[in-house]
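Hi V.,

You were right to ask for the full record rather than a summary. Here it is.
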Amino acid sequence: QVQLVESGGGLVQAGGSLRLSCAASGRTFSSSTGAWFRQAPGKEREFVAAIIRTDGRTYYADSVKGRFTISRDLAKNTVSLHMNSLKPEDTAVYYCATGYNGGSYSWSRNYDHWGQGTQVTVSS
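Predicted structure:
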């Protein structure tokens, strides 16, 4: 059974930084693409970033490009999201996902396994 556990969320002032981490069990990030999504209150879950299984290529939503960095540590079986220059509009619950089953990397329906989420709140 695949389990994903996110950590690292919290409250930060605008312009600050946070690092989220996702630890996987039951599946390794060397065998499956890892991704981060987020969901703000009253909004749809949206794509943030993905790191591709085969070669580590990364993809980002336009709203976070240049500010967020996704990375992986295959030895520790973790995927991280480094978030810099945070804005109030980045406030959301952030979810780690894996079990990519094909199609667009930015579609949540294309991932089979999800973590429980971690809250990120950016104050102005």
